[in-house]
Every structure is written in structure tokens, then in C-alpha cells.
Design a protein that fits this description.
Rna Polymerase Sigma Factor, Chain: A; about 0% strand; 2 domains; about 200 residues; Arc Repressor Mutant, subunit A; 7 helices
């Protein structure tokens, strides 16, 4: 039997014959025929890989997509409808969709990573800024506490850092409550002035 010339008038019948053969193989695959699957793979793997590579460019991703396509074809061979189109068109549609899904998935992952990176960078920047501000504020408070008199400082420390009430501060320092209130009030006013708080 002579091999048809791809440029001669027999070329269309070769394509039709191939599609008929692929459709027949799909029918056998629908019944679980592994040999039919092997033959279907042998006849179409290059085309599937070529389509995937045109969309994805990356050879590794294209190989993975090709494998996924043939798994899908094996699992869904019974869904092929020869009246809806040729076997090759059905296969290429599956391949194209799979490749596009890969592109979208990769883009989605890239977008998520970019958002996470931006958010974590912002968090890192914010936490560094907050820490620096806290340190500066603490230094300013320490410096301003140094401007208080001894009695004001001791009263403020016991009330605000020790959590004691006016009565407890008065008892601890052996002073009258109005005196303690006055020391704390004057001390706080001096701190506000020093810190520039209005």
C-alpha cells in the first residue's frame, strides 16, 4: 500500500481516517481497553504536548499538562460525542482548556505571593517603625521623669507604675492624701510639659 502524499488530494481523507480511528479508539477506551489507550496516546501525544507548550511555553509544565490531559481522556472517553465534532478537536479542546487552567492557576499563585509579600513587608516595616517609636517615647519619658522632684517622682512611680491608690501611696510615704494628690498632679503637669503633650 502506497503512503499518501501529504500534499496530494488524499491528505483530507488521511485526516478523516485518523479522526475515525481516534473515535474508534475512544469507544474502546470507554469500555476500559488499555491497548486502545496506548494506541491513542501514541497517535496523539506529540500534538497534545505541542498545544500545551504553545500555551505554557515551559516544557516541564507542558509535560505535566499532557499527562493530566490523557488521564482526563481515559476517565471521560465515554463522554466523547462524534456528532459534536472530531476526536482530535475534542482532544485539542481538552488540552487547550487544561493549559489555560494552568496559566490561570500560576497567575493566581503569583498574585497571592505578591499580595502576601507586600503585606508581610508592610507588617515588617510597620513593626520596625512602631518599635523605634516606642523606644523613642520610652527614652523621652525617662528623660522627663528626671525633671521631677524626688517626692513627685516617688509619688508618680508608686501610683502609675506600682498601681497604688492615693491612700496607699500616702500610707507608704507617710504623707497626707491631699499632699500626695498635689505631688502627683504637679508631677504629671511637669511630665506633660516636658513631653510636649497638650
Amino acid at each position: 500500500m502506497d503512503t499518501p502524499n501529504a500534499q496530494g488530494p488524499e491528505a483530507p481523507s488521511l485526516v478523516a481516517g485518523s479522526n475515525a480511528q481516534l473515535a474508534e479508539l475512544l469507544g474502546l477506551m470507554a469500555d476500559g481497553d488499555r491497548g486502545a489507550f496506548s494506541e491513542f496516546y501514541r497517535l496523539t501525544a506529540r500534538r497534545v504536548f505541542g498545544m500545551a507548550k504553545r500555551v505554557l511555553v515551559d516544557a516541564g509544565l507542558s509535560e505535566d499538562t499532557t499527562q493530566e490531559v490523557f488521564i482526563q481522556v481515559w476517565q471521560n472517553a465515554d463522554k466523547f460525542d462524534p456528532e459534536a465534532g472530531s476526536a482530535l478537536a475534542w482532544l485539542m479542546t481538552i488540552t487547550h482548556r487544561r493549559a489555560i487552567d494552568r496559566v490561570r492557576s500560576a497567575q493566581s499563585a503569583t498574585d497571592r505571593e505578591a499580595k502576601y509579600g507586600a503585606a508581610s513587608q508592610l507588617l515588617d516595616h510597620d513593626s520596625v517603625e512602631e518599635e523605634a517609636n516606642s523606644r523613642l517615647e520610652a527614652e523621652a519619658v525617662t528623660r522627663c521623669l528626671g525633671t521631677l522632684t524626688e517626692t513627685q517622682l516617688e509619688s508618680v512611680r508608686l501610683a502609675y507604675y506600682g498601681g497604688l491608690t492615693y491612700r496607699e501611696v500616702a500610707e507608704q510615704l507617710g504623707a497626707a492624701i491631699p499632699t500626695i494628690k498635689s505631688r502627683i498632679r504637679d508631677g504629671l503637669l511637669r511630665l506633660k510639659t516636658c513631653l510636649g503633650v497638650s
